[in-house]
From TrEMBL:
The lineage of its organism: Bacteria, Fusobacteriati, Fusobacteriota, Fusobacteriia, Fusobacteriales. This is Uncharacterized protein.
Length: 103
């Protein structure tokens, strides 16, 4: 469950696990899908001189970002991501927050 904003809007990312059937047969094919979705997300942003300027259309941007998240989660599921993998990632993020990216 992910909470965001002052209203504590809840988004249940676990729902994406129900769409593993949309994944391609193997990790390499799914990785290519992730690359495709990333490119589609980039197409929704105005870029000038290698800098992001603005989002062209918020609804399209959000849709493409969610497609990218879904494709990435499916890739992780195909690669048999484990709780240990996830916990290592959380530890890394905590290290970033407490060190490299501390404000």
């Amino acid at each position: 469950m992910w909470e965001h904003g002052k209203d504590k809007e809840k988004i249940n990312l676990n729902k994406l696990k129900n769409y593993k059937a949309l994944a391609y047969a193997g990790p390499i094919a799914q990785f290519n899908k992730v690359k495709e979705e990333y490119q589609e997300l980039l197409n929704e942003v105005e870029i000038k001189n290698d800098d992001f300027r603005y989002v062209k259309n918020r609804d399209n941007f959000v849709a493409e970002a969610l497609d990218l998240v879904t494709a990435t989660i499916n890739l992780l599921l195909l690669c048999k991501v484990t709780d240990l993998d996830f916990n290592k990632h959380i530890e890394k993020l905590n290290a970033y927050r407490n060190g490299k990216y501390k404000k």
